[in-house]
């Protein structure tokens, strides 16, 4: 088991990163170290996601540093100031639709940002004679989208060749290759995880599940791309983060691990289940909500099916999913219903422009 003491979390103010910090500081008795959260606070990052963490642990076990992962000297200063021995790298531009409209930010953050972090980790963890510390770890968070699109059958394994098809997934694939290159070339101790679609609290409502929940609550159209039969494999965010923590503690250096929910759903079928849950919790008429389903123009290059084979992490590291889909969707819906202030703060300003431009027009 690795001793992980001073953990640099990148992108900790975003959806998965903030859930990771909550889990680690509030639920993991096997972690007693410090978390340094490096986040640029783009549209997707929100310090309110960690307000309670700041109140409880700020200045002792939790430190927020606003900055860009592409900023070489700032990243270098953090390694020194906090004596970083572990990096868990969540920070990214993460939304496929945005990558289609404006790929450049994805190349900058996902490719150049990952390179900068790797390079500064190498610099910090190599001694004067060039030997690399082996009591440290760089864990890279990646996605199943790097594997491309499946037909009706089959699963992505860790050995599936990369075949990214959107600017987002291409930039994530490039970052994965850089991470493994730093392992092979410089001996940097790395692990990687490629996860399927996450859902849960604090997810920015441009992604399918929170967008649909909030649109249902506000009586807005429910935009379904194409024929609605694209398939995603959904995993509750806490299960993903438990897997990440398990890999960080016990995963073999140089290895990658797939993480998934073994929970495939056509978008349209998922939406119908979600309509039932939201209608019940919010006391809406499900027939009226269903009538708001609107089939819209398809996403260009829309991957048809993702499905993860996660037998490696189950077999080697003894991880398993604990939250089933019904329970996870119910918890997620309840969270959005009880966090009106958070929703209001998100659903204003530039977010409204984005939605009007990209969903309203379809
Ligand atoms: P998100 O968009 O909600 O959050 C990204 C965070 O990164 C934000 O806080 C943002 O401010 C920060 N960030 C962006 N650019 C930055 C920069 N240049 N410097 C510093 N911080 C920056 O993303 P998410 O959904 O939480 O995804 C986190 C990671 O998990 C990403 O690497 C993503 O590719 C991967 N992933 C996501 C999913 C999913 O379903 N959401 C599934 C598998 C993998
Ligand atoms: O598979 C992992 C990936 O999952 C992550 O790497 C990405 O960061 C994350 O954004 C997610 O990508 P997707 O493109 O699968 O997620 P999204 O929520 O954007 O869309 C899920 C599916 O729903 C997809 O088939 C497109 C469809 N969709 C999405 C939106 C926002 C709609 O039909 N209507 C919508 O309004």
Give the biggest sheet: 7 strands, parallel
- The geometry reads as globular
The distinct bound ligands, ions and cofactors come out as:
nicotinamide-adenine-dinucleotide, 2'deoxy-thymidine-5'-diphospho-alpha-D-glucose
Number of domains: 1
Query: How widely separated are the two ends?
Result: 51 Å
Describe this structure in words.
This protein is an alpha/beta fold. The chain has a single domain (6-359), classed as Rossmann fold (3-Layer(aba) Sandwich), CATH 3.40.50.720. 45% of the residues lie in helices and 16% in strands. The protein contains 14 helices and 12 strands. Strand 5 (137-143), helix 6 (167-186) and strand 6 (190-195) form a beta-alpha-beta unit. Helix 1 (15-27) crosses helix 8 (237-250) and helix 7 (208-217) crosses helix 9. Bound molecules: nicotinamide-adenine-dinucleotide and 2'deoxy-thymidine-5'-diphospho-alpha-D-glucose (DAU). 2'deoxy-thymidine-5'-diphospho-alpha-D-glucose binds at residues 94-96, 143-145, 196-197, 207-208, 211, 223-225, 230, 232, 267, 299, 306, 359. 2'deoxy-thymidine-5'-diphospho-alpha-D-glucose is lined by residues 94-96, 143-145, 196-197, 207-208, 211, 223-225, 230, 232, 267, 299, 306, 359.
Quick structural gist:
Helix content is 45%, strand content 16%. With 362 residues, the protein is of the alpha/beta class.
Topology:
Layout: E1 6-10, H1 15-27, E2 34-39, H2 51-57, E3 62-66, H3 72-82, E4 86-89, H4 96-101, H5 104-125, E5 137-143, H6 167-186, E6 190-195, E7 197-199, H7 208-217, E8 222-225, E9 231-236, H8 237-250, E10 256-259, E11 264-266, H9 267-282, H10 286-290, E12 293-296, H11 311-317, H12 325-337, H13 340-346, H14 350-360
Parallel strand pairs: 1-2, 1-4, 2-3, 4-5, 5-6, 6-10, 7-9, 8-12
Antiparallel strand pairs: 9-11
Helix pairs in contact: 1-8, 3-5, 5-6, 7-9, 9-12
The structure holds nicotinamide-adenine-dinucleotide and 2'deoxy-thymidine-5'-diphospho-alpha-D-glucose.
């Amino acid at each position: 088991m690795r001793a992980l003491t001073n953990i640099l979390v990148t992108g900790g103010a975003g959806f998965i990163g903030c859930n990771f910090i909550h889990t680690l500081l509030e639920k993991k008795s096997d972690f007693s170290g410090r978390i340094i959260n490096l986040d640029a606070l783009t549209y997707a990052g929100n310090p309110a996601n960690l307000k309670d963490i700041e109140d409880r642990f700020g200045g002792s076990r939790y430190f927020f540093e606003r900055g860009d992962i592409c900023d070489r000297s700032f990243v270098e200063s953090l390694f020194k100031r906090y004596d970083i021995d572990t990096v868990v790298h969540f920070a990214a531009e993460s939304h496929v639709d945005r990558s289609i409209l404006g790929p450049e930010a994805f190349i900058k953050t996902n490719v150049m940002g990952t390179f900068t972090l790797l390079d500064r980790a190498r610099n910090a963890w190599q001694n004067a004679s060039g030997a690399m510390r082996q009591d440290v770890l760089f864990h890279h968070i990646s996605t199943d989208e790097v594997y491309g699109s499946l037909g009706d059958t089959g699963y992505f394994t860790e050995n599936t060749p990369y075949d990214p098809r959107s600017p987002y997934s291409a930039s994530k694939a490039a970052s994965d290759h850089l991470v493994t290159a730093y392992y092979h070339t410089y001996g940097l101790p790395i692990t990687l995880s490629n996860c399927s679609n996450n859902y849960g609290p604090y997810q920015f409502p441009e992604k399918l599940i929170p967008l649909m929940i909030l649109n249902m609550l506000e009586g807005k159209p429910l935009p379904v791309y194409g024929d609605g039969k694209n398939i995603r494999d959904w995993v509750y965010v806490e299960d993903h983060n438990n897997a990440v923590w398990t890999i960080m503690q016990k995963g073999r250096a140089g290895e990658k691990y797939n993480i998934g929910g073994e929970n495939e759903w056509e978008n349209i079928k998922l939406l119908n289940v979600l309509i039932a849950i939201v209608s019940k919790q919010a006391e809406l008429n499900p027939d009226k909500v269903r009538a708001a389903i609107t089939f819209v123009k398809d996403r260009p290059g829309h991957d048809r099916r993702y499905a993860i084979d996660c037998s490696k992490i189950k077999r080697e590291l003894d991880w398993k999913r604990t939250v089933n889909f019904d329970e996870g969707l119910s918890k997620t819906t309840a969270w959005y219903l009880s966090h009106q202030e958070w929703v209001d703060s998100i659903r204003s300003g530039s977010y409204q422009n984005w939605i009007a431009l990209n969903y309203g027009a379809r």
